[in-house]
Structures are given as structure tokens and as C-alpha cells.
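Re: the 466-residue chain
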Amino acid sequence: MLLTIGTTYQPATDLGFLFHKHPDKFQSIDLSIGKAHIFYPESSEKKTTIALLLDIDPIDMVRGARNLSGKGFTLGQYVNDRPYVASSFMSSAVSKAFSTAMNGTCKDRPKLVNKKLPFEVRIVVLPAPRGGETLIRKLFEPLGYQVNLQRHILDGKFKDWGESKYFTLELSNTITAKELLSHLYVLIPALDNDKHYFVSQNEIEKLLKKGKGWLETHPEKEQITRRYLINLGTLTRQALERLSDGEEQETKGELAQEEIKKKETLHQQRLSLVLEQLKKSKAETVIDLGCGEGKLLRMLLKEKQFSKIAGMDVSYHELTKAKDRLHWEEMAPKQKDRIELFQGALTYKDKRLGGFDAAAIVEVIEHLDENRLQSFERVIFKHAKPKTVVVTTPNAEYNALFENMEAGTMRHTDHRFEWTRKEFEDWANRIAEKNNYKVEFLPIGQEEEKVGAPSQMGIFKLAHAP
């Protein structure tokens, strides 16, 4: 497996100072499963490239393997792709070979540490068994990388066998060397389903240290964390809680207290209006789809009108927070009988979503890719088909009034789109007509001339429902 990092920064030979490796020397370091070789394929003032080549010993690898046997394949520990693909082995090698650069130290050229340089990275080859190209792009592109991928076929002699899970990955970005190495250190093993080391509490500390400053705001932070920690629920939950706490503290430090209060007030107004519409619908059973940490669920539990309440969220971490904030363990048995929490996605048909009088979908749809909205529409309005559906989403026109927002940006980095009032109404009217609903619209928050209110609400009613 081969990793190359090049730059055209002038003079490009400064790369040797930054990575603490002399261009004229071929160097090798010992790894637990072989050796890593560091050398320069090219070195000039115009362009310099450093290479990290891993030479894996298959015997050492088998002796120290955590689990390389695979499912249903007894020879998997001897016949596998580990010596040839960029995996957790590469991440460990990067950390060992370039530790000084990764820690942000450059004795001879200290100004280079915080200088953003144009880097070109090539990884041969990278496995992406689930998600393929889409997954790789989702991990790297939000960090500003231009991604170029070449997918390899299984066998050149048997082209009918189709494409493999292996890619040659080329990245380009203008960032600091420390940022680049931290991204590679975390994201390469996030694509590896079979780490060579035992994943324990220590891995949380490594993830948080190397991900500091970028992971907490990455739109795929949950997926990165989960994959890095090989889907171990307890460790993933702990890591995400610490990431969320750090993000919240940073946000509060940056925003003025007055602005925070305004946002909290708007959110509370939104939830109060949703609750009001749910009560007006005379629903007795209600489900909060995308319930998050359970703020609306707490409000619903206080209303005797609702005999059955459910909360669903795609994030297990959020559901755990909801349980904590609902005081689930101390909840009276009769209250606990009224409520159910479960994990699920709004874009997949699910029997658990059926049978409710009403559904609340509060500030959720903007987190879906627009090309997934048709799936969402079928799941909710065709299959689950509650008598009442309350949907809220930001009003994009109002963004012009936010002082800290640049033109053309969205309120949150994980929003896939934000609609104007007309766009939302056109979408809602089409859905209503297609699925035998009637829909009305209400503003959420103080309305301003020309741009309307901060958020918007659509209340869908089944045409034949009382």
C-alpha cells in the first residue's frame, strides 16, 4: 500500500523540513507487522513529493491479528487483502512516520506549521466495502478536498465479474500539514471494517485528539465515529457525547448570549405551536419522527390527551440522550407504558410508523438529501398515513436577516437544503394532492415584511378524516 503527499508550494523542498524527513535519505521504520519505508519520488523547488510505502509481513500479521478470518471463510486470515490496501495499518504508519508533523512541530521552519499549503495526496489502494464512492466523498469533501476516484475492476481477465470495492484515491486541498495528517489518520481507518488492533477506551482519546477542530462540525461525524470505533455502541456513544459537549461549549463561546436566547425562544415557540396543532387534531396517539433529545416528547407526556406516544430518530446517540432527559429509569410504570422510543430512518418503509393518529416532523426534512424526499413522502404519506402530519422547516428567505450568515449559506452545516415559503408550499401542496390530504400553512416566530417568519409549518389533514 502506498501513500504519497506532494506540494507545489514554493520552494516545494520545504516539505522536507515540515515532515522532518531528508529528501536524500531513504528511511525505514519498524511496525508490528512489517516495515514502513519513507522516500521522495521527486524533490525540486517546483514540486516535492514524499511517499510512505508499507511492506506488510503476512506471517506477522496473522500472529497478531484481532480477527481476519471473515464470516464463513476459515482461510480468511491467510487469504485477504490486508497487505495490499490502505487500512488501519496505514493510519498507524502515518502516526509513527510523521508524528512530529502531526503534532504541529517544525523546528527549522516554524512558520510552516500554521501555513496552508497546496497538497496533492494519492492513496493506492483504498477499500470502501459499504457506500463505495459516495461514502469516500462524504468523508473527505466536507473538509474541502477535491476528490478524484478510480474504481478498480475485480479481474482484468474476467471483466464480467464487475467492479471491486477498491479505489485509487486522489485528493487535493490547501490546508496545513497537521490538518492533512489528522484527516488521514482518522478517515482511513473509518473506511476499514477490520482494524488490526483491539478497539478500546484508548481509541476514543485518539479519535478526539486527532479530530479536534474539525470532527465535531463534520456533517458525517456520527458515521465517522461509529466506523472508527467499529460500531461498538458504548464507545461510540461516549465519543459522540464528548464531541457534542465540546461543540456546544464552542458555540456558546462564539455567540452572544442574546442571540442564543433568541434561538432558544424560537425553538420553544416552534415546539409549542406543534403541540397546539397536535392537541387541536384530537389525536390520541402521536409519533415524533426525528425526536432528537426528546424535548417535544416531554411536552407530549404532560398532556393526558395522548394515550400512546412514540419517538423515532436515526441517531442512537440522540435516543440515549432522550431517555436520560426523560428520566426513563425513574419513570413511573404508567407513564412508561405510554411511551416508546426506537431507532429508524424516515426514508425506509417501517411497520412501526403505522397506526398513529398524528405525526410530528420538526426541523427534520432539511437534513435529508433532496433526492431522498420521494422515499420520505412514500413512507409517511402513503404507507404510515397518519390522520394529521405536522411538518416544520426553516424559511430560507429569513436567512438574510441573520447578521452572522454569509449570502448563499445555510443555517447549519448538516442541512442539505433550505426552502423559501413558495418552495415549501409547492412541495406540500403536491404531496397533499397526491395522497388525499389537505394542507394549511402557519408562520413560526415573528414575521418580517418581505421575508416572512424564521420557520414555516405545514399541517396536513387526511381529506376523509374527521
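The domain at 2-197 is CATH 3.30.1610.20 (c-terminal autoproteolytic domain of nucleoporin nup98).
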